[in-house]
Amino acid sequence: MPVQHSEPAPGPSRSPGLDRFNAAPPDRAETALLECCGSRRWAQRLTAHRPYPNLDALLAAADEAGYDLPPADLAEALAAEVSPGLHHGAPHSAHLALRAAHAAYESRFGHVFVICLDTFEPAERPDQVLSGIRARLGHDPDQERVIAADEMRRLARGRIIGLISAS
Are 154 and 66 in contact (CB under 8 A)? Predict the structure, then answer.
């Protein structure tokens, strides 16, 4: 009787989404990663180091690549971001206040405001964005670059988790 071979079942450290990511053609993996962080060098680095044995290894590689981003690559990633906004049903005055805060931030630092809101409830997010912008407007450009880079790493981690979970 012939022996039947089957795919190994995903173990505790494996997931079907990660398996698909690891097996994806390089251009598809890079495109998916660019949705997580807009730095082409970051996405190419993560793509080139596949396969990842588990999600933790992929996240660690993403963090390391994020810490290694030179200023031009961070600027590229920030340019791909969209400032967090409000639900369309929010009061007009809230939209105006947030638009003014974003404009002040972008004028001061030359890029959009980024903040990871993964740990906040949806109802808390607008207040977090506005208070975050107000607090960070007082930073000097070098200090804010470090914070923006950290927020980009946090955003990328959450997006990678979503990518792998949804795959």
Answer: no
